[in-house]
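// run 5 | inverse folding | seed 20
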């Protein structure tokens, strides 16, 4: 079992977004394994950069979908995206400056953020799209 597990209630009904959600969960599980596994921390700087880049790209796709469908909660949803990216960037900056990171802080942030975001904001997006007939 991984750190985060895909559940059907994470689906928003847009295949490319759902596919990326699954990929992000896989990436997060891989990162978590590196944080807690043997030789923890090996290549963590590059991995954090990859995590940030992939999450940023995913958010861009999701935000394009929301804008194109004139999603009423776009601004709040986007703000939540920005909050997570800021948290990851702070962890990356700390690692780049000091050569260390707080694995527990990163793991907790990802677990809390993705679990909560999928259950709330993405669930509301899915409901809005379903109501709109998408």
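// decoded
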């Amino acid at each position: 079992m991984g750190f985060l597990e895909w559940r059907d209630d994470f689906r928003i009904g847009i295949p490319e977004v759902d596919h990326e959600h699954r990929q992000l969960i896989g990436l997060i599980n891989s990162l978590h394994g590196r944080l807690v596994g043997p030789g923890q921390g090996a290549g963590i700087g590059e991995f954090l950069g990859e995590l940030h880049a992939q999450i940023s790209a995913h958010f861009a796709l999701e935000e394009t979908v929301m804008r194109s469908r004139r999603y009423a909660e776009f601004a709040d949803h986007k703000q939540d995206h920005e909050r997570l990216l800021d948290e990851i960037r702070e962890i990356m900056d700390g690692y780049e400056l000091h050569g260390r990171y707080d694995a527990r802080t990163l793991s907790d942030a990802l677990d809390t953020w993705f679990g909560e975001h999928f259950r709330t904001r993405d669930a509301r997006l899915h409901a809005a799209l379903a109501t709109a007939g998408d």
